Amino acid sequence: MDGTTGEALLIASVTWLAVLSPGADFAVVSRNSCLFGRRAGLAAATGIALACWFHVAYAMAGVALVQRVAPGALDVVRIAGAAYRIYVGLATAATRMATVDAAVAARRSLARDVATGVLTNGLNPKTSLFVLSLYSQLIGAQTPLPVQLAWGAFISLSHLAWFATVSVFLSREAVRAAVLRRQRVLRMTIGAVLVGLGVALLLTRLDPAIGTVS
């Protein structure tokens, strides 16, 4: 195995480990899929995949440039992301859907569910730091632009593939029916997770230099 192949496998492995790790994206797709059906879940998954390009764009521009043009930008993302997670968590806990109603699910705004995915991932510091560290430490500014864009597409499509799979499974009628019979537990659990993530995020500081939270 040559160095290029080994590097590509490393980047792909790191990407999928990041995608598969539980977080706000997973909670929102699970919420939409279980409570509102496959259409809502897939829309959120699509929004998450689209938002990945936001992170890729400024990662390609470089952390130093982002920090020079907009000092404290990551802190703005952190605070906005925390506030949005808390809002979605509280809304999830308050949302009730007593039966599997396809008509109600079909009337939901597709744009709204896509926007939920975009905001959840776009304001997700976990994704931000992952993409920044990937481009600064493994891909590098010396990598040709087409290759950098190809890796951006890989990151985006990896998110779409995983969360679409999650949505398809959780939106199956048998799964939804079972979940909706216990929907209070689901709503409260996902709501608590999102609020908890939001509060934890407010208490952390992002350190772009090392790609972690401190």
From TrEMBL:
It is found in: Cell membrane. PANTHER family: ARGININE EXPORTER PROTEIN ARGO, TRANSPORT PROTEIN. This is LysE family transporter. It is a multi-pass membrane protein. Keywords: Cell membrane, Membrane, Transmembrane, Transmembrane helix. Coiled coil: none annotated. The keyword Transmembrane applies. The chain crosses the membrane at residues 6-28, 40-61, 149-170, 185-204. Its main location: membrane. The keyword Membrane applies. It comes from Methylobacterium ajmalii. It holds the Pfam family LysE.
